[in-house]
């Protein structure tokens, strides 16, 4: 946690929707003239796609469970924590990107399945924004969550998450439903031990719940739309959250618990804007004051 150099982390399983939520945060940063540096969690994978296949084949041949992209064997949690620690201290660090598909290959100039070279973070940023699988991990060896100032979980119910992953991995990464199903099955132990426990450490969780049949996620023709779903927004610490304001601004919303507001799926974006804009602005305002920057603009949303 850092007053001078805050960290915002959006964490969720593969296919949960963290990249999609990032678009909302980018809009907030643009509108509030906030300079952010974005870190994608898969850049802390230990192996590129080819090395991962080699490691997988060696483990399988040896009759042992191969590492998965969800656990510490294939992710350098220690380096991720060190990046958060360093950024929190002085606003610096080094990042790279993992290239998943042809679009990213064109963007970064590297082949799919490889990493871009490490490079220094942009200087003088207002905050570091993490999007990935492990933004709130706590294990015996690392505590990534403790360095994060605002930690958001993107946690659709599992059938919806699997539908989203299957559709995305098929359409964007060229995997078959069978490939993705095998990946889901293979990752299950690490999903239970490293991905799910994070959502107890987050400040706010967004859980999209479809209102249509998703009984067989491996045979769903399309992803349930926002209008075919509701979203449970749970606050770990509801103190200071202006629920009456949110209920008045978000048509069709209601409280399901003292710390949980339920909104129509179509209002998810508006809910995020209303909830996060003041939170981000407070983090940035304190950061700029602590760094001796003047000329603070008031936020566009009260
Ligand atoms: N709120 C949403 N409503 C509809 N589709 C969504 C939503 N969030 C994510 N998706 C879809 O689910 C798939 C996975 O989303 P993505 O953001 O790529 O997940 P992640 O980055 O967590 O792996 C994509 O096809 C995306 O369009
Ligand atoms: O799951 C992720 C990242 O999470 P997300 O799915 O949220 O991007 C891994 O980076 C890819 O599966 C590895 O890619 P590949 O196995 O295709 O090299």
TrEMBL record:
The keyword Nucleotide-binding is annotated on this UniProt entry: yes
GO terms for MF: ATP binding; phosphoribulokinase activity
Keywords linked to the UniProt accession: ATP-binding, Kinase, Nucleotide-binding, Transferase
Major enzyme class: transferase
SUPFAM superfamilies: P-loop containing nucleoside triphosphate hydrolases (SSF52540)
Pfam families (UniProt xref): PRK (PF00485)
Keyword Transferase: yes
Phosphoribulokinase/uridine kinase domain segment(s): 7-215
A Gene Ontology BP annotation from the UniProt entry: carbohydrate metabolic process
EC number(s) given by UniProt: 2.7.1.19
Catalytic activity, reaction form: D-ribulose 5-phosphate + ATP = D-ribulose 1,5-bisphosphate + ADP + H(+)
Family affiliation: Belongs to the phosphoribulokinase family.
Protein name (record): Phosphoribulokinase
Species this chain originates from: Ancrocorticia populi
């Amino acid at each position: 946690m850092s007053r001078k150099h805050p960290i915002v982390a959006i964490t969720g399983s593969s296919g949960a929707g963290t990249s999609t939520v990032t678009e909302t945060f980018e809009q907030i940063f643009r509108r509030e003239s906030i300079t952010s540096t974005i870190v994608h969690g898969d850049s802390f994978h230990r192996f590129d796609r080819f090395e991962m296949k080699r490691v997988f084949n060696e483990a399988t041949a040896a009759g042992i469970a191969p590492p998965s992209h969800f656990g510490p064997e294939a992710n350098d949690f220690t380096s991720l924590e060190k990046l958060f620690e360093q950024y929190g201290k002085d606003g610096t660090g080094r990042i790279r990107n993992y290239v998943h598909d042809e679009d990213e290959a064109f963007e970064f100039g590297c082949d799919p399945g490889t990493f871009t070279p490490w490079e220094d973070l942009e200087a003088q940023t207002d905050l570091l924004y993490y999007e990935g699988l492990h933004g709130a991990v706590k294990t015996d060896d690392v505590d990534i969550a403790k360095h994060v100032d605002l930690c958001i979980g993107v946690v659709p119910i599992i059938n919806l998450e699997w539908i989203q992953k299957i559709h995305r991995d098929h359409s964007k990464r060229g995997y078959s439903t069978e490939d993705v199903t095998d990946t889901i099955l293979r990752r299950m132990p690490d999903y239970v031990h490293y991905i799910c426990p994070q959502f107890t450490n987050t400040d706010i969780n967004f859980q999209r719940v479809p209102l249509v049949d998703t009984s067989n996620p491996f045979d769903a023709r399309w992803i349930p739309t926002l209008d075919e779903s509701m979203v449970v927004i749970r606050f770990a610490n509801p103190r200071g959250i202006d629920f009456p304001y949110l209920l008045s601004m978000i048509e069709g919303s209601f409280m399901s618990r003292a710390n949980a507001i339920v909104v129509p799926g179509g209002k998810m974006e508006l809910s995020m804007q209303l909830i996060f804009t003041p939170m981000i602005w407070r983090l940035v305002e304190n950061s700029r004051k602590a760094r001796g920057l003047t000329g603070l603009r008031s936020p566009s949303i009260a």
